[in-house]
Specification:
60% of the residues lie in helices and 12% in strands. By secondary structure, the protein is an alpha+beta fold. It has a four-stranded antiparallel sheet with strand order 1-2-3-4. Helix 4 runs antiparallel to helix 5.
């Protein structure tokens, strides 16, 4: 039966066995290469496992265990490289060689990207703590976000070049497509550029309290910055409403930051008194209230000034410094309530607009004629 099948195969393809016989040594060598690579990989894994176990006593190793993962991948890729080169040289197929190198370039981009992220994390943790400038924080943030895109983009270009594909037309086409996309997404790009400028310039930080221009009608008009993104900034108002404002809109407006330099701010509280009031006595009452208010600083001391002469009142203004900008409304409300109570006790009038109406009665023409006739 076996002889019959052999005879049939020789009739269908006369040279198949001779060609298989010629390929047998190559296939045998290829099998040995693959087995040798597998054996080296198993041995290297065991060696690295032993080294990792014995170095756990070092603090640096315990806090940077990702290093061993990178070493594992580096050994794996090195074995793949050696094995692939050996097989390519064994079979001597040019196109297979080009495909192998192209794939290897893209494959190597993975550990390069992971190593870059690990290095950036290490540098960020040790370098940014020693500087007060925010520029290094911004640089590391941008590098972490865009390093992978750059590394894989360069790897793909090199891989295409190895395959013999001319990348110049592709780059030119990508440039034209980028211009078209730029026009189509100009608002998004505008927000992106504004976000980068916000990160660089830092007119406010996360946690700062700033004024909000687009809050819903009747709600709080200021809040705390909770996130600064490349496209938009998130602000949580004192009503616990999160408002997401495009960065482009923020860059167009004046940014009012209450806490960028210090949490101390000065409040101006208007108080009106009647023209009959003893101004010095009214000032003294207001200062007494200010000195009892929680959060009002003693230095600089509170002051009361005459702002202007109004239509129906002398307009005073209490100027006090508080130690927490976030308590602005609380202190204002407290002082307003207590001033009203103190004025009532002292008999100081808080005036309101008044109008005197005089009614002049004019006689009708018929009545005037009758009066003359009687005379």
């Amino acid at each position: 039966m076996g002889g019959f099948l052999k005879h049939l195969c020789e009739q269908l393809s006369p040279g198949i066995f001779s060609r298989l016989a010629a390929l047998y040594p190559l296939l045998a060598r290829a099998g040995l290469i693959l087995l040798g690579t597998l054996a080296v990989w198993i041995i290297s894994k065991r060696v690295l496992k032993i080294i990792r176990k014995r170095t756990q006593k070092y603090e640096f190793i315990r806090s940077h265990e990702q290093v061993f993962d990178l070493i594992h991948k580096a050994v794996l890729y090195a074995l793949i490289f050696v094995c692939g080169i050996s097989l390519v040289n064994l079979f001597k197929i040019p196109i297979l060689k080009n495909v192998f190198f192209a794939g290897l370039i893209i494959l190597l981009a993975i550990p390069v990207n992971e190593f870059t992220l690990l290095l950036l994390k290490y540098l960020e943790g040790n370098f940014t703590k020693k500087t007060k400038s925010k520029i290094d924080d911004i640089a590391f943030d941008l590098l972490n976000k865009f390093s992978g895109i750059i590394i894989f983009g360069v790897a793909i270009l090199f891989a295409l070049d190895v395959l013999g594909i001319n990348v110049v037309p592709l780059v030119a086409g990508a440039g034209i497509a980028g211009i078209a996309v730029g026009f189509a997404a100009k608002d998004t790009l505008s927000n992106l550029i504004a976000g980068i400028l916000l990160i660089i310039d830092r007119p406010f930080e996360i946690g700062d309290r700033i004024e909000v221009w687009t809050s819903p009608k009747g709600s709080s008009t200021w809040g705390d910055v909770i996130d600064i993104g490349l496209r938009a900034t998130k602000i949580r108002t004192t009503d616990n409403i999160v408002i997401i404002i495009p960065n482009n809109e923020i860059m167009k407006r004046d940014i009012i930051n209450y806490t960028t330099i210090s949490t101390d701010i000065r409040l101006r509280i208007p108080v009106g008194v009647s023209y009959d009031t003893d101004i010095e006595r009214a000032k003294s009452v207001i200062l007494n209230v200010a000195n009892t208010a929680d959060g009002v600083l003693k230095d600089p001391p509170p002051r009361v000034v005459v702002k202007q002469f109004g239509e129906s009142s002398v307009d005073l203004e209490a100027r006090v410094w508080i130690n927490d900008a976030r308590r602005r409304m609380d202190v204002t409300s407290y002082m307003t309530d207590r001033i009203k109570e103190a004025f009532d006790k002292e008999g100081i009038e808080i005036p309101y607009p008044k109008r005197d109406i005089t009614i002049i009665h004019k006689a009708k023409p018929a009545e005037v004629g009758a009066e003359k006739a009687e005379l």
